[in-house]
Amino acid sequence: MTENELRKLSRSDLLQMLLNQSKELEALKQKFAAAEAALRDKQIIIDEAGSIAEASLQLNGVFAAAQAACQQYTDNIAHLSQRQEAICAQMESESRKRAERIVAEAQAKSDEMIQNAKVQSQQYWDTVSEKLQAFTREHAELRSLLSMGGRQ
Length: 152
Prior knowledge:
152 residues; mainly alpha
């Protein structure tokens, strides 16, 4: 903005511009402070590392630790998987034994029911046979009485 343009502005506009400039200055100060802090952190890291070779060795240690952690994780997963498979196999075995026991019990119950049915049917047949024989005897006597009565 030129000097003439600034003179044409009102006081409120000038105050507003001053406030905006103050906010911008404050933001820049904060960015500068953050940049200085980051620079100090980098300087500390460089001082601690000493050289690129030392930094590389430190990074290799981090990678080795990460590799060891990864290996431990995969070993744990494999172990858990094996344990889970063993548990599943045991549960399957128990389920099969239970199913076999249930089938055997059902077969025994079925055999018992068949045997009871045979005994009951034989008893019923014996009762019916006795009644039929008694009926035929009674009718035979009746027939003989009737046939005797007809002859007399």
